Amino acid sequence: MSDGTVTTVSSNGTYSFTKPNREAITLLAGLGVEGDVHAGVTVKHRSRVAQDPTQPNLRQVHLIHGELFDEVAGAGFEVNPGDLGENVTTHGIDLLALPTGARLHLGAEAVVEVTGLRNPCAQIDNFRHGLLKQVVGRDADGELVRKAGIMGIVLTGGEVRPGDPIRVEVPAGPHRPLERV
Predict the structure, then answer these.
(1) Beta strands 4-10 and 88-91: pairing type?
(2) What does the domain layout of the chain look like in residue ranges?
(3) Where does this protein have coiled-coil stretches (predicted)?
(4) Is 4-169 assigned to CATH 3.40.50.2020?
(5) CA-CA distance, 55 to 37, in Å (whole number)?
(6) Which end of the chain has a smaller Cβ tally under 10 Å, C or N?
């Protein structure tokens, strides 16, 4: 796996589909992004809270590969960092190809463990009509492909800024492919 770079960081203290870009975010071990509405030990996404509010929060940090924005632009959709609610926008890493349990070392200190794929929802079409079909599709075998980024938990806290390097640490095999979380 190749290493990459943080291009943008975003957070929002209130429920909103998009997240404003920031100069920096602080990751808190076991919680997520300081001041972000989705930070916490237990689930914070409304649909998951409705199902079972005691579930562990496997979605503390949302990362999207910035290359996705170029891809959807080719289909006529303008999407910018933070627009899809991600906390960290990356460049140079095939996030979707990472195995479950991969660790992303962001900047000097922070470490995020990858827990799974973001499950894109209908809110994406509310943001840009037709965009959902661009971030969810089928592969040649008819299998569902989710391209709206990955989710993780914070193992080690620290500040993350645009321009910070990302080092990928892949766990010993056999690897488990990412599934929806």
Answers:
(1) antiparallel
(2) 4-169
(3) none
(4) no
(5) 16
(6) N
